[in-house]
Design goal:
Blueprint lengths: L2 H4 L7 E2 L4 H11 L3 E5 L5 E6 H8 L3 E5 L5 E5 L5 H9 L14 E2 L4 H10 L4 E6 L2 E7 H9 L4
Parallel strand pairs: 1-2, 6-7
Antiparallel strand pairs: 2-3, 4-5, 7-8
């Protein structure tokens, strides 16, 4: 079995010109927690997840080490949570997304797909063919297709 046998062909994605507000809307409308970012040629240029949003709106701390190696922790961002949540909505998606995307080839074996999903501890894996996004595979997809016939 290969990636193309189990991938979902209808991929919920966002363009690289979109704003974070567009991503959040898609998260809410489709009940998802991450999606690929593509350019005009449908090439994968990033991936944004709920974790990327959480890192931006969460409390940040700066660590300062003085000459005696004493570590002081100072709150680095005193912005109110609501302010940060409002501010993130108008950012371009690529400002907070991961630009190094773990992806798999259209003809990759299911064993390789499972290994990548497990080792990298990611929920979804974009599938590309000739450099273009053609599908997406989730952990659930692998489990369902791998064990369906056995049970």
């Amino acid at each position: 079995m290969q990636a193309n046998d189990i991938m979902k062909k209808q991929v919920i994605k966002v363009k690289d010109t979109a704003y974070v507000r567009d991503v959040i809307r898609k998260f809410i409308e489709h009940g998802i927690s991450g999606l690929p970012i593509v350019n005009d040629r449908n090439e994968i240029v990033g991936y944004i997840s709920d974790g990327d949003v959480m890192r931006f709106i969460g409390k940040h701390k700066d660590y300062i080490i003085d000459m005696y190696a004493f570590v002081n922790v100072i709150s680095g961002d005193d912005s109110a949570f609501e302010e940060k949540a409002k501010r993130i909505l108008d950012l371009n998606v690529l400002e907070i997304a991961k630009k190094k995307v773990v992806k798999v080839d259209y003809e990759a074996d299911i064993e390789d797909v499972a290994a990548i999903l497990g080792k990298k501890q990611i929920k979804k894996l974009p599938v590309e063919r000739n450099g273009v996004l053609v599908g997406i595979i989730s952990r659930g997809d692998v489990i369902r297709h791998s064990f369906e016939a056995l049970l």
